[in-house]
Write a structure and sequence with these properties.
single chain, about 160 residues, Arc Repressor Mutant, subunit A, Dna Ligase, domain 1, 2 domains, three-stranded mixed beta sheet, disordered N terminus
Length: about 160
Amino acid sequence: MTEVASTDVSSDVDAIAANRLRRDGQRYTTSRRELVSVLVEHGPLTIPEILKMKPGLPQSSAYRNLAVLERSGVVRRIITSDEWARYELAEPLAQHHHHLICAGCGAVVDFTVSSQLERSLDAALARVAHDNGFEVHDHRLDLLGRCAACSADEW
């Protein structure tokens, strides 16, 4: 039964990804499908982490295809303090969530908040946007700080 649920999620993700790429005039190629698959299982990941999991994927292909997937709204890039951006599935391919980003090592940890807090955030952000003549489509909340390991290293 777990396999069926996993397959259903994967097929839903594939269908959304294919549709978004098609709207952008792109195809859902084998390389793009492999990138999406690894992000479904393990994201957010750096390109070196992706290449370790998919050793047959050429580095230039990973960069090129991630750029296409990002432009098409299939993945989004998370900028951290280290030299590598992380890539993860964009919404609605992934559940809405936020990030804890370590300024020391660049680690990214996903977290969610209660639906009540999410509604409060949405309302507060909508007010800020309205006051500035801005139309909000979505929001990202990244908390920047230090993970436990990096904090311990300071002492």
